[in-house]
């Protein structure tokens, strides 16, 4: 085999090796889940269903979680002025470890008319795993503080997880198998595994660079042999 053909083969092999590494990168799966809330309010029991979306973005040693409500889950018999309502909730983590992550959000940015479903602002919090592996995130209890009153809304339909994610504990402690239950949904554009994909992509690039270095060495060696 000529030096030129050998060099081309090495480049192709290196590129394929990098691609193979990228294809093994873990993916996060999410689904918008309908959560049926049973609410204890100052004016009696209420119920409502809201689609819930949970996203995760890697930040430092942890993951920033954002819980979004697509419909209101409660209402007030009187108008709630701007900033009068403060929401908070918990996100239940299951799988490699079981914990509850508190999340909270800003007060209502606009006044809420009476007898109108209260739209909950996005709630966020930080989850720092203590064990590595596959975990799921599910909507938990929602609490609404307004006008010196408290409304507590509990999921009554045993909702499915809104997000499944492979997480890595700081230092890689407590590594567990990533095999777990199937979930359906789209792949998130920005989650913790994206960082893993980038790291793996860097590894693929290193393989490619090593191949290029081998090509240069072989080419120069061939030139010296011919001279």
From TrEMBL:
- Known NCBIfam families for this protein? LPXTG_anchor
Sequence segments annotated as region (Disordered): 153-196
> Origin organism of this chain?
Streptomyces avidinii
Question: Which InterPro entries does the UniProt entry name for this protein?
Answer: TAT_signal (IPR006311)
Instruction: Show the ranges annotated as biased composition (Polar residues).
Output: 184-194
Question: What keywords were assigned to this record?
Answer: Membrane, Signal, Transmembrane, Transmembrane helix
The lineage is: Bacteria, Bacillati, Actinomycetota, Actinomycetes, Kitasatosporales
Transmembrane spans: 197-218
The name this protein carries in UniProt is LPXTG-motif cell wall-anchored protein
Q: Which residues form the signal peptide?
A: 1-30
């Amino acid at each position: 085999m000529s030096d030129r053909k050998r060099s081309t083969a090495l480049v192709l092999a290196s590129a394929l090796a990098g691609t193979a590494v990228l294809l093994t990168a873990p993916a996060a799966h999410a689904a918008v889940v309908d959560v049926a809330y049973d609410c204890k309010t100052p004016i009696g029991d209420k119920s409502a269903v809201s689609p819930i979306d949970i996203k995760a973005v890697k930040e430092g040693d942890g993951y920033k979680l954002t819980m979004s409500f697509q419909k209101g889950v409660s209402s007030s018999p009187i108008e709630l002025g701007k900033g009068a309502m403060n929401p908070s909730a918990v996100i239940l983590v299951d799988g490699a470890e079981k914990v509850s992550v508190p999340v909270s959000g800003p007060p209502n940015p606009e006044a809420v008319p009476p007898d109108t479903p209260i739209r909950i602002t996005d709630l966020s919090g930080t989850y720092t795993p203590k064990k590595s592996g596959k975990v799921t995130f599910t909507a938990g209890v929602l609490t609404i503080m307004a006008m010196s009153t408290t409304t507590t809304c509990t999921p009554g339909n045993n909702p499915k997880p809104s997000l499944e994610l492979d997480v890595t504990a700081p230092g890689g402690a407590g590594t567990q198998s990533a095999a777990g239950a199937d979930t359906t949904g789209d792949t998130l554009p920005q989650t913790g595994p994206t960082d893993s994909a980038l790291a793996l992509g860097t590894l693929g690039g290193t393989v490619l660079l090593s191949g290029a270095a081998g090509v240069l060495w072989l080419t120069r060696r061939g030139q010296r042999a011919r001279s």
